[in-house]
UniProtKB/TrEMBL annotation:
It comes from the Bacteria. It comes from Roseovarius gahaiensis. This is DUF5681 domain-containing protein. Residues 1-28 are annotated as: Disordered.
Length: 140
């Protein structure tokens, strides 16, 4: 006898069975939070005391909470305006100059270049669409 699992033929759940609501926590997480309930202040104080006594792991933990590591930082440099795909080449030159002068790190320059490339593709596609529309309207 086939087992009723509540699933469709493709393995997905059918209507009326939405599963767990978004944001629902796992039972182990709920149990851990229940154990820590009301102890956050005491645990934080103990971590600080141990860090001040010289425990480098506790010190790192405390410092990471005070001033978390920045994943990326904003950069400022002059970038010419881009209105066409040709302007993107000028902007790429400006990025290369900024890297060569030390205003940007090579990694920052690479990230900016990838943004420029995506923008150039968007501009190029837009220009092609305009030209295609003009050709199509000229044919009619």
């Amino acid at each position: 006898m086939p087992r009723k699992s509540g699933r469709n033929a493709d393995g997905t759940f059918g209507p009326g069975n939405p599963g767990k609501p978004k944001g629902t926590r796992h039972k182990a997480t709920q149990a851990t939070l229940a154990l820590l309930e009301g102890e956050a202040e005491a645990l934080s104080r103990k971590a600080i005391e141990v860090a001040l006594e010289g425990d480098t792991v506790a010190l790192r933990l405390c410092l990471e909470r005070i001033a978390p590591v920045r994943r990326d930082a904003p950069v400022q440099f002059d970038l010419p305006p881009m209105q066409s795909a040709i302007d993107a080449a000028k902007a790429a030159g400006a990025v290369l100059d900024a890297v060569a002068l030390g205003d940007l790190t090579p990694t920052e320059g690479a990230h900016i270049m990838s943004l420029l490339e995506a923008y150039r593709k968007t501009l190029e596609t837009s220009e092609l669409e305009i030209r295609l529309s003009a050709l199509e309207s000229a044919e009619t």
